[in-house]
Specification:
Layout lengths: L13 H13 L6 H10 L1 H12 L28 E2 L1 H12 L4 E7 L5 E5 H17 L7 E5 L4 H12 L3 E5 L5 H11 L3 E5 L1 E4 L2 E4 L1 H14 L5 E5 L4 H9 L8 H9 L31 E3 L2 E3 L5 E2 L3 E6 L9 E5 H16 L6 E4 L20 H11 L3 E6 L9 H9 L3 E4 L1 H8 L4 H5 L7 E4 L6 H8 L8 E4 L1 E3 L4 E5 L13 E2 L5 E4 L13 E5 L9 E2 L7 H7 L7 E9 L6 E6 L7 E2 L14 E2 L4 H8 L5 E14 L7 E12 L8 H14 L8 E4 L13 H8 L17 H4 L7 E2 L3
Parallel strand pairs: 2-16, 4-5, 4-6, 5-13, 6-9, 15-16, 15-17, 17-18, 18-19, 30-33, 31-32
Antiparallel strand pairs: 1-12, 2-3, 7-8, 10-11, 13-14, 14-25, 20-21, 21-22, 23-24, 24-26, 26-27, 28-29, 30-31
Helix pairs in contact: 2-3, 4-6, 4-12, 5-6, 5-10, 7-8, 11-12
Length: 748
């Protein structure tokens, strides 16, 4: 297959400069990406040393080594021992040094009618104010700062303020249900919680106070150290007092917190020079390895808190497939290095770039608000990574489909976006919007498009370049995960785009594809388990609450193949092109698509948004119905058929099988509706299964555990041969009749 895209000037890219540096430094003769990747995984110590140097991290103490050992993946290596750094200083350093008066962040509300812009100097000062507020609220090094906020300027400021004072940042989106909020934050015991109680979506302002109050009811009993809840942008709560003030010392708005802590009852903040004893002046004027003091408004200051580079800065949560979501902990140094690797070397982002990334969520019916800018997903953190490169970022808070999908292209044009992060589902929506092609062809500034979240179809990749987007734009399909806060396979400026394939493995990531016998299937091109066989820098530091031996961490990544990271994806590699294709999850994570129910989408024949979640959340809801004995939930891959008869949109839907307690009872429409409503109320509309079917029995293991993988295989039309481990194999035949249908109309 002929390439759809090759970089027009690869010799001008940062990746090629890195290649030339490696050749000169180590007397190598690397000519292409394949050889560069091979060198990176065969010389891990040298590669990560050069990545550290390339990244220009600012430290108060330099690293003593790349790692304490790279001989094995488990136990996890300690990375860059001896290095001390301030996370937020490193995020701001490049932009402040390169163009302090230029715009760092542009944030807008839905429809682009309300914009806020901050220069790098203004961003630094705002972060300093937020950091001061946190410190004066009693938050210190190692304390957790939690947020339930949208993709807003406030989210960025809170994250950076947390890093400035050595606190640990954690976030989830406002559409998370009360149970989800409690499950995630009860683990880490935050000291302070920021929430947004109302959000704008599809031109409607959604009130989230009831949901947040329900979460607070439970949080106050499970998080004993939660001192404050700060409600952003909602003066109405000053009257309600958050149900009469369930928690002590509640600050109602961020401004109130800053004002009350810093200057009493005065209505205006004092000038910065008079706040010197409160402020963190975070700035770097060079790439020096030493942490310099610097002068600002006559005040000499340095960041107040530094941590070892391998210290936890960020916690993120798994989907909760087998129970309570795992709390995955990432270090500040790893997040910075991985982001710089993926963005600067991967898609050539730098100080001359403008990055716009929205992260999609599923809301089929708009009976419940959802934020398309999900701060709890890994891709949101890439925005902070872009800032560390000196790039400008654009934040958008609201529905990307309002007033039309093509509005997003107008935003790209008006803001001069060079790098755009989106999803195949959204591109499919643009294909059906008659206005999109004309705008796409005008996008002179656009250089690279990063797509993730679901498989990219070959036809969609071909459409992208068929007189729609300009030929110089790279369409980079990528796959990675929260587990490593970045990519595993994806595109780059030295590799061609061939169909919908992901061009190559990321530098420093030793990807292999193993079958059930633990043999590498890469030479044959067969589908197998995606594994990583050598250590990489963004391995999680730990799981929060794990035991001293890291038992849960080990079970998650290393129990399938001892000593080898198993990622949970099915993948294959094209022997001819070297490109990779993901074939779905190999575990029980649900990753459905769905149609947003806003009126504009009634004309769109495709599913646009996607979210990942676990089955345990659904089982918990179903267990509340006394007439139901058991259930099993799996994902089912289907082809969505457009109104014109085309069927090239690959999708994944959630289906639920239910066993009634009494053999004479039926799963009727009334019960289906009640189940759906309870799921929608407790979790969200995006959790509601597309189909619910009654079955006689649920397959289980000898010790009584339901077997999701077997059901998933059966509804996909696959044969199940491992019946010996199934306690009730006679029930399997009933599931065959629910195997994947040939075509389904897109749900409008």
């Amino acid at each position: 297959m002929a390439p759809l895209w090759t970089h027009p000037s690869p010799h001008l890219t940062r990746l090629d400069a890195f290649r030339r540096h490696i050749n000169k430094q180590y007397n190598e003769h690397i000519r292409d990406y394949t050889s560069l990747h091979r060198w990176s995984v065969e010389n891990l110590d040298l590669f990560y040393r050069e990545l550290w140097n390339f990244s220009g991290l600012v430290t108060s103490k330099p690293p003593l080594a790349v790692a304490n050992s790279l001989a094995a993946m488990w136990p996890r290596p300690q990375w860059f021992p001896g290095a001390e750094m301030n996370f937020t200083e490193n995020v701001l350093a490049t932009g402040l040094a390169a163009h302090p008066d230029m715009t760092a962040v542009s944030a807008c509300r839905e429809g682009g009618t309300e914009w806020r812009h901050l220069s790098w100097l203004q961003l630094r000062d705002q972060v300093a104010l937020y950091a001061s507020a946190l410190q004066n609220a009693g938050v210190g090094k190692g304390d957790r700062v939690a947020t339930v906020v949208t993709n807003s300027l406030e989210a960025i400021l809170i994250a950076l303020a947390s890093g400035a004072i050595g606190a640990i940042f954690s976030s989830t989106s406002p559409d998370t249900g009360p149970k989800g909020i409690v499950e995630r934050f009860a683990q880490i015991q935050p000291k302070i919680l920021f929430v947004e109680s109302q959000v704008l979506y599809a031109s409607k302002r959604r009130n989230l106070r009831e949901r947040l109050s329900a979460a607070v009811d439970e949080l106050k009993t499970k998080v004993t150290g939660l001192d404050k809840i700060i409600v952003i942008n909602d003066p109405a709560w000053k009257k309600s007092g958050l149900r009469g003030g369930l928690l002590r010392n509640i600050d109602l708005t961020l401004d109130a917190s800053v004002e009350s802590r810093l200057r009493g009852s005065s209505k205006r903040l004092l000038d910065l020079s008079s706040l010197s004893k409160y402020l963190l002046i975070i700035q770097s004027t060079s790439y020096s390895r030493k942490l310099p003091q610097f002068n600002y408004l006559g005040i000499e200051a340095t960041p107040k808190e530094t941590n070892p580079a391998d210290t936890v800065w960020l916690t993120m949560n798994s989907s909760g497939t087998t129970g309570t979501p795992k709390c995955i902990c990432h270090s500040g140094g790893a997040v910075l290095l991985k982001n710089k690797l993926d963005l600067a070397l991967g898609i050539d982002m730098g100080i001359d770039s403008t990055y716009y990334q929205y992260t999609t969520k599923n809301d089929r019916k708009l009976t419940l608000h959802t934020s398309d800018h999900q701060t709890g997903w890994m891709m949101w953190n890439m925005l902070i990574g872009a800032l560390s490169l000196g790039s400008r970022i654009v934040l958008y808070d609201g529905s990307p489909l309002h007033p039309t999908p093509s509005f997003q292209l107008s935003l790209l044009e008006s803001q001069g976006v060079t790098h755009w992060g989106t999803s195949p589902k959204f591109l499919a929506g643009l294909r059906s919007d008659p206005e999109s092609s004309g705008i796409a062809r005008r996008l002179e500034s656009l250089q690279n498009v990063l797509v993730s979240g679901s498989p990219l179809s070959t036809s969609l990749a071909a459409w992208f370049y068929a007189d729609n987007f300009q030929r110089h734009v790279g369409l980079h399909n990528a796959s990675g995960g929260t587990d490593l806060v970045g990519g595993i396979v994806g595109g780059n400026s030295l590799s061609s785009v061939v169909g919908s394939e992901m061009a190559a493995a990321t530098l420093g990531i030793k990807v292999e594809i193993w079958n059930g016998d633990g043999k590498n299937t890469v030479p044959s091109g067969e589908i197998g388990e995606l594994v990583i066989t050598k250590p990489f820098v963004s391995m999680p530091v730990k799981f929060w609450g794990d035991d001293a031996t890291g038992n849960r961490y080990f079970d998650t990544y290393f129990s399938l193949y001892p000593g080898v990271w198993s990622h949970g994806d099915l993948i294959s590699r094209n022997v001819a092109t070297g490109g990779y294709s993901i074939h779905g999850r190999s575990d029980g994570v649900l990753n459905p698509g769905g149609i947003d129910g806003c009126p504009i989408l009634r004309a769109l024949p495709v599913v646009l948004v996607r979210v990942r979640f676990g089955t345990a959340e659904l089982y918990d809801v179903v267990s509340r119905f006394p007439e139901i004995e058991d259930s099993v939930v799996v994902s089912q891959r289907v082809r969505r058929c457009q109104q014109n008869g085309e069927s090239d949109i690959e999708d994944e839907r959630v289906v639920m099988f239910i066993k009634m307690k009494s053999p004479g009872d039926a799963l009727d429409d009334s019960l289906r509706s009640r189940i759906a409503e309870e799921i929608r109320r407790t979790l969200s509309a995006r959790h509601v299964p597309e189909e619910m079917w009654q079955v006689k029995d649920i397959p289980c293991t000898m010790n009584g555990k339901k077997i999701e993988k077997v059901v998933k295989a059966l509804v996909a039309g696959e044969k199940v041969t491992m019946r010996g481990s199934i306690a009730n194999p006679e029930c399997l035949e009933e599931y065959v009749k629910f195997s994947t249908p040939g075509k389904l109309m897109a749900r409008l």
